[in-house]
Amino acid sequence: MNLSEVFSGIATKMLADFRQIHAQIQHTGIRGREREDVLRIFLERYVPSKYGIATGEIVDDRLAVSKECDLIVFDHLNCPYLYSTQGVRVFPSEPVYCVIEVKSKLGPKTFRQALENIRHVRNLNRDNGVIGAVVFAYESSIGRGTIFETAEYLGNIANEYNPIEIPDLICVLDSGNIWIHGNNDNPYDMPEDPSDRRMLAIEPTETSNLLLFFDQLLKLLNSRETYQPALAGYMKQPGKHDIEIGLATMIDLF
Hints:
Layout: H1 3-24, H2 28-46, E1 51-59, E2 69-75, E3 83-84, E4 89-92, E5 96-106, H3 108-122, E6 132-140, H4 147-158, E7 169-172, E8 176-181, E9 198-202, H5 209-222
Parallel strand pairs: 1-4, 5-6, 6-7
Antiparallel strand pairs: 1-2, 2-5, 3-4, 7-8, 8-9
Helix pairs in contact: 1-2
């Protein structure tokens, strides 16, 4: 089996589905959900079952809330939901591996929107490290759309932001990947210090771009630690420091 050919075929279908959605659906909200679903379906089929994929918000134990995240990758085995409907869930911060911002075309406006959403996620309180962040786009609207032009332009924008707000991985499906990693020779390194990073643009020649993205995403997920939270920390009322459970009495059973 040629794995690169397999993933190239998947990427071709994903791009065709995206372009069909973009051409036929006019409502921006519906179009946005449909483009997210194209990536979500791929991830649900191919990531290990311990990872769950959903749309929603993330809350920390100080009751700070993220903005709505396009896709949240969470610990499927150990994550209790704080709120759940058919379409949207609210997650405690501790069992979340990473968030993925999904864009049709990656350009200055959409990149800044992604950074703003990532800022809210990265500022959430938790003691198991920052939540991973990914930006995924189907196409680039910068210059001729090459990954090198895109990386250079986005790098200039990223310099305006706090290093903690910069994503770990950027994928433009039709052109290449941008890896953000530490100052060493290992492109797969995910340093703990977000300020010690630089951008590396990758334009695949013989390997599927989607396969490279998927491989790096799995490495990012594996670099993050999660655990099941104690929900008592989420029972506090806004503006109060103590948990008010109510009246209680001890009854002897024997």
